[in-house]
């Protein structure tokens, strides 16, 4: 068994209610099929919910219209398990491969509706449609929205719908939807999504984010245990704390954490101040560039493959471990600014778990910090944190070669997402 460890960065006033439950693998025919609704437009004609208002709703979009479709039985079984939990409303939408459309699972866990036409779950518009529909049919005081599919962090986004032209959702577009239809918790059941840049984008649309800094596995999250953690009630931070405790023991070769999106503003400010100090110091003494790059390189990285299509992810690093490494730079001003980055990152983290054997220095939130001589052009242009701070200017200065080198490059592999299936699948 891999070693595991609970992170010390937790809210001491919160009580953990650790619940571990494996998602059993159901046969594909375990769900009774229903006739497709031919006149479907969006989700408007789905049968209305029969239950009353609950304290929490668990809403999930499983966008596995791609190479992750083999995990579908696990999510169908999850829908059945969730439906048995008192005090919880739940609805999962599963995007099936090809042009067959989607299945809507709720109420008693059965498929209550389906679509015989392609639905693009790789588009932000569908998220808005689903949230509008679920607010009507699954009323609750608080909502957790789970996005289950491929993930690529702030640069590559979330969800891949192969039948809709390999469409995916950019984080700024996802944030725009949540700004209008706020949820309390966003749970990214996907790789590499727990980043300060993602939290900064979503700070207006969600209170907390539950996700992995690292790669993760399709079908690995225990949704019944997650649902039971939500059914205990509480505010978003309390619920998120319990959900991480429910997921953590089930995570294999991965990480999971919960962060406060409100803390992303201070974290961005700390990164901005560090960037200003570091740029000034590198201009005054070129040797600081080498020192800083070496310190960042020693931070916990989420590189998982030598395949060049995945080089981007080598630049995703744990923010706390990297800030600690930067505090060893010889210049006291740089070290002091790095200390503030660490402090701000710690303040974001509610609860964190890591597989000690694979990610020994993961602490709950990552950031984009490449040192390989390239900086993603899309990050600099589209990331709200990059726009609002000098972090991207610092990355360009750090990665430039010579006085006139420009490391900004367009992503050569924008659809290159990790593919990991739950062990034993």
UniProtKB/TrEMBL annotation:
Kindly give the InterPro entries that the UniProt entry links to this protein.
Answer: Peptidase_C11
Region forming the signal peptide:
1-26
Does the keyword Hydrolase feature in the UniProt annotation? no
Sorted alphabetically, which Pfam families does this protein's record hold? Answer: Peptidase_C11
* Keywords on record: Signal
Q: Which domain of life is it from?
A: Bacteria
What PROSITE patterns does this protein's entry cite? PROKAR_LIPOPROTEIN
This protein is called Peptidase C11
């Amino acid at each position: 068994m891999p070693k595991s460890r609970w992170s010390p960065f937790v809210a001491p006033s919160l009580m953990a209610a650790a619940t571990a439950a494996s998602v059993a693998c159901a046969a594909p025919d375990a769900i009774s099929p229903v006739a497709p609704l031919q006149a479907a437009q969006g989700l408007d004609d789905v049968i209305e919910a029969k239950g009353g208002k609950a304290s929490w709703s668990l809403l999930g979009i499983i966008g596995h219209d791609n190479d992750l479709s083999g995990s579908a039985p696990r999510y169908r079984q999850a829908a059945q398990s969730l439906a048995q939990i008192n005090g919880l409303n739940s609805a999962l939408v599963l995007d099936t491969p090809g042009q067959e459309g989607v299945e809507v699972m709720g109420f008693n866990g059965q498929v209550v509706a389906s679509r015989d036409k392609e639905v693009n779950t790789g588009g932000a518009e569908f998220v808005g449609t689903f949230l509008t529909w679920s607010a009507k049919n699954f009323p609750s005081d608080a909502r957790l929205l789970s996005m289950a599919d491929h993930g690529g962090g702030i640069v590559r986004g979330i969800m891949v719908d192969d039948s809709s032209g390999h469409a995916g959702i950019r984080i700024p577009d996802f944030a725009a939807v949540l700004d209008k239809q706020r949820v309390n918790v966003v749970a990214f059941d996907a790789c590499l999504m727990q980043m300060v840049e993602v939290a900064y984008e979503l700070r207006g649309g969600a209170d907390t984010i539950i996700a992995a800094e690292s790669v993760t596995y399709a079908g690995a999250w225990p949704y019944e245990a997650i649902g039971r953690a939500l059914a205990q009630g509480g505010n978003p931070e309390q619920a998120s704390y319990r959900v991480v405790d429910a997921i953590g023991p089930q995570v294999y070769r991965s990480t999971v954490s919960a962060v406060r999106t409100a803390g992303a503003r201070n974290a961005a400010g700390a990164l901005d101040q560090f960037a200003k100090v570091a740029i000034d110091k590198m201009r005054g003494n070129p040797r600081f560039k080498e020192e800083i790059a070496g310190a960042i390189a020693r931070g916990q990285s989420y590189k998982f493959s030598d395949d060049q299509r995945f080089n981007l992810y080598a630049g995703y690093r744990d923010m706390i471990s990297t800030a600690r490494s930067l505090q060893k730079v010889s210049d006291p001003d740089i070290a002091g600014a790095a200390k503030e980055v660490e402090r701000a990152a710690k303040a974001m983290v509610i609860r964190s778990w890591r597989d000690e054997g694979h990610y020994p220095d993961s602490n709950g939130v990552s950031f984009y910090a490449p040192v390989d001589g390239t900086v993603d052009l899309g990050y600099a242009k589209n990331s709200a944190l990059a726009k609002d701070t000098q972090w991207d200017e610092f990355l360009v200065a750090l990665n430039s070669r010579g006085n006139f080198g420009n490391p900004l490059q367009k992503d050569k592999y924008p659809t290159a997402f990790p593919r990991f299936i739950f062990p034993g699948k």
